Amino acid sequence: MKISDKCLLSKLHHFFKIYRKTLITENLGLKIKNPKNGYFVVIGLVLISVIMLLGASLTSNVVDKTVNQNNRIISERALEVAEAGLQKAIAELNNNPSYSGEQNTAFADGFISISITNIDAQTKYIESSGRINNGSSFIERKIGARAKTNTDNISFYYGLQVGQGGLNMSNNSIVYGNAYSNGSVVGATNSRVTGDLWVAGAGALYLQAENSIQTNGFYLGRTSFGKKIAQEFFATSSQAISKASFYIKKTGAPPNATVTLRNYGTGVPTGEILTQGTLQSNLVGTNYSWVDVTFNNNPPLIEGNNYWITIEMPSTSGSNYYTIGISDNIYGGIAMFFYRSDWEEMEGDFDFKIFSGTSGQTKIEKIIVGGDAHASLIKDSTITGGAYYQTIQNSTAGSYHPDSPDPPLQNFPISDGQIADWIADAEAGGTIQGDYFPSTSISLGPKKINGNFTMTNGTTLIVTGTIYVTGDINFSNNVVVRLNSSYGNNSGIIIADGKINLSNGVTVQKINATGYVMFISKFSQTNYDAISLENNVRGGIYYAPYGSVEVENNANITEVSADKIKLANNTWIVYESGLANINFSSGSGASWTLEKGSWSILQ
Amino acid sequence: MFVNKGLSLVELLIAVGVLAILMILLTTIFLSQSQNFEYQQTKLLLEGYFEIVLATIKNFVSAADSILSNQNIQGTDYTSGAETLVLRLPSIDSAKKTIAGQYDYAAIFKSGSDIKIVLSPSAQSIRKLENRVLAQYVSWVNFDYGDLAPNLAKTVLFSMTLSKTASRNQIITITRSLQATLRNKL
Hints:
Chain A is an alpha/beta fold. Helices cover about 15% and strands about 40% of the residues of chain A. By secondary structure, chain B is of the alpha+beta class.
């Protein structure tokens, strides 16, 4: 290196030294004793502060995002807990229909709260919330849905309910409870009804008017379709109206509807109301069938006059409504529907039937009645309570009520539509082809047997679902029939197209408080009994809407409804109070289920 | 005695060299972090889209009572298929309970590189009329109905791929799937 270079470098070094000192002292305004020390501390502090601020900001951001993400995950889990609550509510309802919910039940890593409100007899609204602690607070999600029961609620108010075939009671036969008959009740020595006995006065039914051709359907009570319809009809005989019948089906669970008989009036269905009855929703099936409606009283129709029969629902709904059959204008009356604020005439006629009868055709004879007796004619009877009659002969009573109106016809508590639905349930479980004769105890149902069904010799039938037999049912020699425990408090059904014969100690057991087995025979021929219960048969409910039931030789059963009933010597019908409110289940599956289209997130 | 001789040329060159190396390193780190930042930012954007789309589909499918084969919504016909899902949802009232017999109709579908939703509510529903983009950069969607026709399906498997170029032609591609059940189709 040259000397000149050394000089240059020395000068540069000196210059930078002076310049640095000047910079520090002048620009920063600091008085530094030793300019070589300290300023790095200041720069360092500034840098550290900036880095810490950045770090804190990033950390805060990350923590926020982590908390948000964590809360989102917990929220989803809370929703799943709420879902579990909904399923729990359904399970609880199936064990106990009066279950009303619970609060803060621990479940998984959260808590379930359930509240249930009743909408109607077959519908409830369930709110289920799931809560999970995220460390500092609870995150809650809530869902709601309607639950519906797939059971048919049926009320047997009478130990015996008899159609127009009437009731014959032999010596010492007893009905413990009330009895209602659309035909005469005739007894023998010591034939007794311990409760009230009614006998409708209509006698044989006369078909006043009908349109039974169905080519289409009309919505009744469906949103946008109105809730009232009316059909004009012409009386062809001067008799008292007995009942109306409609060819109808339902969707969902519509409410009961009011059926009204009106004078024709001014051409729209607003004339004077003559009588009313109720179209019971639980009698209407999901497929078309004829459903009867009886009236509160039975005013006379006048031959040649025209009348309105109307059906009115309390409300409309998009999911719970009826469809009534209609046809082209073959009958020739006026059919109308009420839309918005006016009655509108429509093409065709609704599917309807009007029946009438002649009063004074029925009687109570030779019966000891523990309660009240109601009949047009009471004869050779002993009534502890009041006697309500048009005519009384050779009878005694606690009190006498002459000129009492005849009791109206009483519908059976089960309709053809319901039976058709139950048969469909049984068929869904598969078919056994040919006669079925198991030699050992079995569990069966839902199942269709395409033939006869026979059991004998002390075997047991455990009903696990509805059983439908196309032939006859013959159970004998100490066979035991009972429901599977999964029915809970629901009752079950065995249906036969043919005859049902239970004999020689067959026992139909009840499970729980109201887990009955009901036998139904659709047999309608008059030369044989539809249901025959012989020799010490115990328990069970029996229904034969078109045929007769004969109860013989010390049988002791729970309830019988049939067109005609014969009670032989020493037979007992022992009505139980639980029969007034029975839920028939189609199978052993859950009876309460969530309703389609009702699920929603509430929170 | 200390003589203030200054820096030698060698010292200066070393200092400059060290500084140059440091600068190169810092520049490299900066560029690398910048790319990483863009990558992460793009990924975050796509993940955000996924969150929106998957949450929307889960909510709508859960609330639906049926998948419709086709439906006219806001004047356009939509047909359920691999790239379109048409739903019928029971309308909800102000208490967020379903209204019997009242329905809202929605379609979620791929349109170009977007996935969109259109919704037409009933008069009584509190759901709002919608016609909006849920996500961009959609390269593929698939609605899988199992072996069933869409209108018979009770569950839908939804899959979607989002693709976006980050920096220096680096393409980020993410695929996510979701299985959702129609809670109102029992």
